[in-house]
Each structure stands twice: as C-alpha cells, then as structure tokens.
Amino acid sequence: MKTIKMLSAACAVVFAFTALSASAATAHEWLEHKVIPLTKSVKVKEYGARYEFADEGARITFECTVEQKGTVGPGAAGQIASFKVSECRTIEGCEASQAPTLEAVHLPWSTELVTFESGLGNTITTKGAEWKWTCKILGSNWTEHCTIAPTMNVTNLGFNVEEAYKNEPVIDCFALGSFHMKASGVLQTENDESLWAK
C-alpha cells in the first residue's frame, strides 16, 4: 500500500511538472533581442499605421493614417495610450469638401498577446472600447460609433513587430450596420531597440 501511495505521489509530481512546462512553452510574452523577456513595461510607437472603414451597403469608404503610442510588457500585457490621426481621406461616399475624422474612444486600451488564427495576435481587452468617426453626407456631418475588431494578427519583422487585420474583420456600427476594416502598422520601441513577440 505504501508503494502504491509513493508511486501515485510521484506520478502527480511528474504530471504537475509536465503541465507547468507545457503552460510555460505556450505562454506569450514581449521580448527584446528576440530572446530576452521584458521585465518592465517599455514605451512603444506605431507611426504611419493605416485604417480603412468600408460599408458596401451605404457606399461609404474612408481611410486614415494614425500614430499610436503606448507600452508593452512585461509578459503578454500592453496598452494603447494615445491615438492621433494625422490624415483622413474619402474613398467613396463622404463629401470631399470636408475630410472624415476618426477617434479611439475610452483610451487607454489594454492589450494582451494571444494565440490567434493558428498564429499570434494582439487583442484589446478593454470593455467599451469603440471607434467614433464623422463623415459629411448630403451636406450634414454624420457621427457614427462602432465596435472594435479586438484582435490583430502579429508578425515579427526582424527588429520590429507588424500588426494587421489580415482577414478584413466586420465591425458593428450603431446606425449604419456592418463595416469591413483594414489596418496595418509597424510597432517599434520609442528608443528604437529590438522588439519581438512570441
């Protein structure tokens, strides 16, 4: 009986160690120099990111170039602290006499690295995060609020990280219904040190 108890205890220890090792192997985290986990939050920036909103039904399409700043690390955590639009332009539907506007509502937004579409993603975890945009239609400014597409695909590029919506996710806008989104940008540290995600 004593032998059986000892064997059971040994099996339990091995199982716990195996589970812990598997968990550690699949844990996501931000790194510097590709292999060194961040031990504190690091300031990051994303310049020249492009966001496109398109509604085929209402025939409204516009795109904006934005600058984002925030932090990543330690671990899988991150934060979008500021979202500054440098330019918006109409592709279809909005009147050319006035450029559309875009705003990220309820900043800062918390983020977390996750497994996504058989790869790596960065997801916004803040409840109530949404987009607010305006567009001039038939002489009047139309203001719309939309849900976010929370998770962007993450790809490591040498020394920086690309974030993009690869499959044009659908977001819900409160008045006009569904819009397709495109977005991409390169995330880098403010001091231009190497950044990596796993």
In short:
The protein is mostly beta strands and 198 residues long.
Key descriptive features of the protein:
198 residues; mainly beta; 1 helix; 58% strand; elongated; disordered N terminus
The number of E-state strands comes to: 15
Described by strand count, sense and barrel closure, the largest sheet is: 8 strands, antiparallel, barrel
CA-CA gap between termini: 46 Å
Instruction: Report the radius of gyration as a whole number of Å.
Output: 22 Å
Report strand order across the widest sheet.
3-4-5-7-8-11-12-14
Mean pLDDT: 87
- The figure for the number of domains is 1
The structure class reads mainly beta
- The portion of residues forming beta strands comes to over 45%
Cα shape: elongated
Helix content: 10-25%
Q: Low-confidence segments, ≥5 residues, pLDDT <50? A: 1-25
Continuous helix count: 1
Reconstruct the topology from this structure.
Blueprint: H1 2-26, E1 30-32, E2 36-37, E3 42-55, E4 60-72, E5 77-92, E6 101-105, E7 109-116, E8 119-124, E9 130-137, E10 140-147, E11 151-157, E12 160-164, E13 170-173, E14 177-189, E15 196-197
Antiparallel strand pairs: 1-2, 1-15, 3-4, 3-14, 4-5, 5-7, 6-9, 7-8, 8-11, 9-10, 11-12, 12-14, 13-14
